[in-house]
Amino acid sequence: MHKCFNPVVMAGGVGSRLWPLSRSAFPKQYQALVGSRESANGTMLQQTFLRLDGLKLGLNQLICNQDHRFLAAEQMRELGPVDIVLEPIGRNTTPAVLVAALRLKAVGRDEPMLVLSADHDIADLPAFHAALNSAHSLAVAGFIVTLGIAPSFACTGYGYIHCGNAVLNGFGVEKFVEKPNTAVAQAYLDSGDYLWNSGMFIVKPSVLLAEALALCPALLEKCQSALNGSAKDLDFIRLSVAEFEQCESISVDYAIMEKTQKAVVVPVACGWSDVGDLQSLWQANAKDECGNVKQGDVVAMDSHNCLLKADSRLLAVLGMEDIAIIETKDAVLVAKLNQAQQVKELVAKLIGRDELSHQREVYRPWGSYDSVDSGPNYQVKRISVKPGARLSLQRHQFRAEHWVVVQGQAKVHVDGEDYLLNANDSIYIPKGSVHCLANETHEALHLVEVQSGSYLGEDDIERLEDVYGRH
C-alpha cells in the first residue's frame, strides 16, 4: 500500500544572501536557479513539487506571501491542483504550518503532512523518497519526524541536530544546535552524532495540533481565528489580516521541535542544499572543466571555481578564483565565495534603494515590464503581455502614454473606443483617459511604452476594473 502524504510547501522567504538574484519582489523560489541535472526543470518552487512525483499525495497546500500570489498561481498552474494560502504578513514558519494542519483537520485528512521549503535543492531523489517512507512510518506512530542531512563538510551556515537513542528506523532528538563556528562544526562532523537540520518534517496533523495546544496554545488560537476569518479570492485563500498579524513570529523549531518529547530524526544523504547563499548556489550547479558555474553570456579565461552569472550583457572574466560575479540589469555583485554569508550584511547597507527589493523587470499577473530608460518627466518601458491576458481598466492623473506595438496584436480601449494595433502601429493615451490593453491572441504581445508627465510613479494608477482582483 502506498503511503499518503499531504504536502505543505512554504514559499515565504526572501533569500537576501542571494542578492541581487533574489529580492523581496521576486525571491529565489520563483526563479530557475538550479539546473545541473536533467530532472531539475523549472523554478525552485516547481522543482519542490516535481520531486514528489511517485509518491501518493493527498491535499497539496502552498503557503506564500500575498504579494507573490500571481507568481505562485502561474507556476503552479503548470503542475496541477494546489490550495494557495496567502499570508498577509510574514510570521515565520509556525503560523503557516499550524494553519495548514487546521485546514487538513477541517476536511478530515489526518495522513502525515510533508512540510517542505520551496527553495531547497535535492540531487538524489531515490534516497529522498526512501527517507520519506521511513519518516512516514514514524509519523503514523505518533512522532514528529524531521529529516537530518548527513553532513559532508564542517558547515557553519546550517543548524545541527544532535542524535540520541535509536527509535525504530530513526533517532531521538537530543537537542537542536544553532549555527556553530568553524571549530565546533568540525567537532560535530568528526563525532558522527550530528546531522544538518534540513527544516523538512513529517507529522500527522492531529499530532502537531495536540503538541501546539500543549506548547503554544495562544498561537494556535490566533491561527484558528485567522483561518476562521479567511476568504476565497479567485484561486486563493486569504487569511484574516487582523487576526494573522497578531500571530507570534516564531519558527517551528523554537515553538515546537525544541520543546516536544516526540521529536525524532531520520538521517538521509540525498544531496540536499538550502541554496541559501552564493557558495551553495555554486555547489548545486554543474561546473565546467575549470570548476566554474557559467550562466548567461559568459567568457572566462584563466579562472577557476567561480560562480559567473550574466542576465543582460556579456560578462568577461580573467584571472579570477573562488569568486562570484552576478550581473543583473540594474546591479552587479562581486564577492568571494567564502564570504557568501556576509552578503546579507552588505544588503543591509542598501536600505532605501530600489535595487534592494525590486529587479528592473517587474512581473505582473498579465506579464511583465522592463524600465529601460528614464529621466526628468519621462520613462520608457518594454511591456510584454501574455496570450489571453489584459491589463486593468485604468487612468492616470499625472502622465500620458504613447504605445508602439513591436510584436503581436494589441486590443486597446481608450475613452469608449476600441482599436486593433499590429506591429509598427502606435496610439497615444492622453492624461486622464480611461484605457485598457489586452492581448486576445495566442501569441505574446510586446510593445514599447513612453510615459511623459510631472509624476511617473506606479501609484499613479486608478484601477476602475481588474480581472485579477487588484485594488
Describe this structure in words.
The protein is built from eleven helices and 31 strands. By secondary structure, the protein is of the alpha/beta class. The protein folds into three domains: 4-273, Spore Coat Polysaccharide Biosynthesis Protein SpsA, Chain A; 287-348, no CATH class; 361-465, Jelly Rolls. The chain has a six-stranded antiparallel β-sheet with strand order 21-22-23-30-25-28, with no helix packed on it. Strands 7-10-8-9-13 form a five-stranded mixed β-barrel. A hairpin with a 2-residue loop joins strand 21 and strand 22 (367-375). Helix 3 (93-106) packs across helix 7. The two termini are 48 Å apart.
Could you list some keywords that capture this structure?
single chain; 471 residues; alpha/beta; Spore Coat Polysaccharide Biosynthesis Protein SpsA, Chain A; Jelly Rolls; 3 domains; 5-stranded mixed barrel; 11 helices; 31 strands; globular
Q: Give the total of domains.
A: 3
Strand tally is 31
Task: Give me the CATH fold name of the largest domain.
Answer: Spore Coat Polysaccharide Biosynthesis Protein SpsA, Chain A
Distance between the termini: 48 Å
Rg (CA only): 24 Å
Q: What's the level 1 CATH class of the largest domain?
A: Alpha Beta
Count of helical regions: 11
Question: Low-confidence parts lasting 5 or more residues at pLDDT below 50?
Answer: none
Strand content: 25-35%
Assign an overall shape: globular
- Mean pLDDT over the full residue set: 94
The largest pleated sheet is described as:
6 strands, antiparallel
Q: What do we call the CATH homologous superfamily of the largest domain?
A: Spore Coat Polysaccharide Biosynthesis Protein SpsA, Chain A
Structural class: alpha/beta
Spatial order of the strands forming the largest sheet: 21-22-23-30-25-28
